[in-house]
Amino acid sequence: MGDQHQELPELTEATIAVQHLIGAARELSARAARELGVNATDMGALSLLEQYGPMGPAELASRLGIRSASVTVLIDRLERAGHVERSSHPHDRRRVTVAATPAAHQATLEFLRPAIMAIDGISRELDADAHRAVTDYLKRATRAMRP
User: Fold this and answer.
1) Prediction pTM value
2) Nearest of 41, 42, 28 to residue 100 by alpha carbon
3) Other beta carbons within 10 Å of 134
4) Which of 2, 61, 109, 144 is the most buried (most CB within 10 A)?
């Protein structure tokens, strides 16, 4: 069958920079989790709810890559801590939607604001052509990491 372990070819400086960006994002998320007093998976759930808005438990489980039973325990834990709230789905009363609470949103925003503003400042320094090129590159790189 052959050796399935293959080394990567020599990577470009841009690819390595993206790897470093991903690592820095993980570290920032870990610091945010410590600040909010939650574990990494809980922080991942809060981040998804911040990024995509309210969603059902099944979608949250799928995005986190965990089982539905595990996401129920996670949501219970975050709800007890005051970080999320459940509500009836707006179109199907049998379904539940999970959303970050205003307090969790505010705490996350306060923690992430310095990094967000620093990145925005760097983005604003780019001329229009560079801004378009960087934005296109990052969107394509993001799509490459999604299934």
Assistant:
1) 0.79
2) 42
3) 13
4) 61
pLDDT at 147: 75
In 3D, which of 51, 109, 59, 49 has the Cα closest to residue 79? 49
Backbone torsions φ then ψ of 100, nearest 5 degrees: -70, 145
Q: Is the pLDDT of residue 75 over 80?
A: yes
For residues 142 and 127, give the distance between their C-alpha atoms in angstroms, rounded to a whole number. Answer: 22
Any idea what DSSP says for residue 10?
P
Q: 36-145 in CATH: which number?
A: 1.10.10.10
> What are the tokens at 28?
């920032």
What confidence tens digit (pLDDT) does each residue in 114-126 have?
A: 999 999 999 999 9
In whole angstroms, give the CA distance from residue 55 to residue 86. Answer: 10
Residue 56, Ramachandran bin (φ over 0: left; ψ between -120 and 50: alpha; else beta): beta
